Amino acid sequence: MKFKLSLPLIKSLSLHLAFGVLIFAGMDFKLPQKTPEMASSQPVIEAVAVDSNAVDEQIKRIEDQKKSKQKAEEDRIAELERRANEAERKRKQQEQEAVEIEQRTKRQREERKQAEQAAIAARKKQEQEKAKAKAAEAERKRKELERKKAEEQARKAKEAREKEEKALKEAQRKKAEAAEKARQERALQDQLEAEQAVRQQRRSKQVLTEVQKYQALIHQAIQRQLIVDNSMRGKSCQLNIRLASSGLVIQVKELGGDPILCRAAKSAVFKAGTLPVSKEADVYEKLRDINLTVEPDL
């Protein structure tokens, strides 16, 4: 199976490789103190110090690039959130309009029912009048007027019914539109959650890389202060170190290992006093209570 590396991943790996080379080149190794036996049996190694300003500038450039990318990502997520909120507001407004239409429709239905009842009463009254013998002209005109009124009421009732049906169709249409808007909002929300998950995963990888970097820096700081001799060759010591947010050493515990080397390692930690830690909270959280294995470079 072949794996294809994306351009951003290649750039990231290249930057980390360059950073590792610079860190390795800038390490200031201290040789163990000479003993008469060591002076006679061990060759002297000369170390060349590299300008730390170049390393600091390289680290700053990398961190500035990371912050710029993070800011652009945060702006894009904020825009998605704004669009989702706007869509939610419109959906609620349409739902409110649909409720108002249903309320008007209910009132119109009641009015139509009352009109129909009035029309029925008018027709009943007219039929009762027809059952009588011929009435006077005035009575006929009155009945004719009542008939016209009944017809007008029936016409209005029909218009009201047609208007109600039209309003009902309009309400159904708007309800369908609201459902479609809700579907789009759900899709947008799903997209936003997916983006947030990807960003969280990316950040977790970044935190892991930063933690590994600072663990290496802490280990180097301890090694620079560590005083060893040949009796410690091949020995190791496990330490638990608690750090303040400034990198100040709060507590050191021995977890196991060679007692002599452990005493020297604890002394090196306290001698260093302040160890390198990240200013980013999520990275520091992984460094505030760490376990390290110290082995002499012999």
From TrEMBL:
Region of interest: Disordered: 63-182
Biased composition annotated in UniProt, kind: Basic and acidic residues: 63-115, 124-182
Lineage: Bacteria, Pseudomonadati, Pseudomonadota, Gammaproteobacteria, Alteromonadales
Gene3D superfamilies named in the record: 3.30.1150.10
InterPro entries: Tol-Pal_TolA
Pfam annotation, one family: TolA
Name of the protein in its database record: Cell envelope integrity protein TolA
Domain of life: Bacteria
Source species: Paraglaciecola mesophila
